[in-house]
Design goal:
Family: Belongs to the BTG family.
Shape: globular
Protein name: Maternal B9.10 protein-like
Largest sheet: 4 strands, antiparallel
Radius of gyration: 15 Å
CATH class: Alpha Beta
Organism: Pundamilia nyererei
GO cellular component, one term: cytoplasm
InterPro entries: Anti_prolifrtn, BTG, BTG-like_sf
Strand order of the largest sheet: 1-2-3-4
């Protein structure tokens, strides 16, 4: 669980660094608060032998129905940052599952892997490289920061190339 949460927080922090309005200290406070919250929330919803069990609970999601994810809102409150300053897209889903962290931009696009934890050992740079690639992919699929949002209505969201996760 520790590696998956670290991968998810690192991924989100990289998005915030690229598209948000937070200085380094604020971003680090946000990341620390989010890490703590995810550990608190996931401890009774983590099932390595059945990774799909509890998946909806471990999903960070914002879209046209729910503009702000409640866990991210709580991390903002705890860290003293404004949610709007994160610069995250209007439609984003991040699944934090045993062995894998996946993401989807837009409600109608295919999910892709941010990290397959089993294949990423600490210190080998693989986790960082994969997350860097996922953030770069975000810049192709989601080119605007929160200051220049574009409509995300039907048909206006770029659909990424389908990516299959290896487990």
């Amino acid at each position: 669980m520790k590696e998956e949460i670290a991968a998810a927080v690192f991924f989100l922090a990289r998005l915030v660094k690229r598209y948000g309005c937070l200085d380094n200290n604020s971003r680090e406070r946000f990341a620390a608060s989010l890490t703590s919250l995810l550990f608190e929330n996931y401890k009774n919803h983590w099932h390595p032998s059945a990774p799909a069990r509890g998946q909806a609970y471990r999903c960070l999601r914002m879209n046209s129905v729910r503009l702000q994810d409640p866990v991210l809102e709580q991390a903002c409150e705890r860290s003293g940052v404004r949610y709007e300053d994160l610069g995250l897209p209007q439609e984003l889903t991040v699944w934090v599952d045993p062995g894998e962290v996946s993401c989807r931009y837009g409600e109608h696009s295919s999910p892709f892997c941010v990290s397959v934890v089993d294949n990423c050992r600490r210190g080998d740079g693989e986790l960082s490289r994969r997350i860097h690639e996922a953030v770069e992919r975000a810049s192709l699929e989601w080119p605007c920061s929160h200051r220049c949002r574009v409509s995300t209505g039907e048909g206006s969201v770029h659909t990424p190339v389908e990516h299959q996760c290896s487990v």
